[in-house]
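Case study.
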Amino acid sequence: AQSVTQPDIHITVSEGASLELRCNYSYGATPYLFWYVQSPGQGLQLLLKYFSGDTLVQGIKGFEAEFKRSQSSFNLRKPSVHWSDAAEYFCAVGYNTNAGKSTFGDGTTLTVKP
Amino acid sequence: GAVVSQHPSWVICKSGTSVKIECRSLDFQATTMFWYRQFPKQSLMLMATSNEGSKATYEQGVEKDKFLINHASLTLSTLTVTSAHPEDSSFYICSALGQGDEQYFGPGTRLTVT
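After joint prediction, the assembly is written out as follows.
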């Protein structure tokens, strides 16, 4: 069975600082990996996804993630955080291109200090 | 981009009553929609896959007679929580599958059963 671990429940960074959110997965085959962001009162929005090819994936809002098979990780990064990035972030792993039947991590809450 | 709406955004009902939650794809047709349940500070748990014109597929452990799903049109799926109890209180999120297997999430519905 597939599983996802987001080790950090809550992360606080200063505005302008760099950010890395960790995601580790367990899956027997080639995974399909997703990162979503959820702002209060809003639905989940897809930031980026990895299916195959280049292991460094660029997403929206200046986010990127790197797939490292040897470490079973898919960490999300952003070089300079903006106050509007404060939200809940979810990593998901699945076995096909749509995340519908994917397994989601428990999420990481990002707080941005002024 | 594609928009998915949910109605109501929040609802309070008495124990033993039923409540219906609507999920609409506003500017695209979706043959497949998903229903999730999200507990506080936890990840999304897939409840069922809703397919237009056919019966929903429920995940293991989800009572199909308690959580009735109807996907009567290409833009609307409904989730009815029957004979609701306080333990059914949760955040219910739907998503719709658009072109290219892109998944679009609704903003969620907060259900409180008193």
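Observations recorded in class. The two ends of chain A are 41 Å apart (CA to CA). The mean pLDDT of chain A is 91. We will return to this complex in the next lecture.
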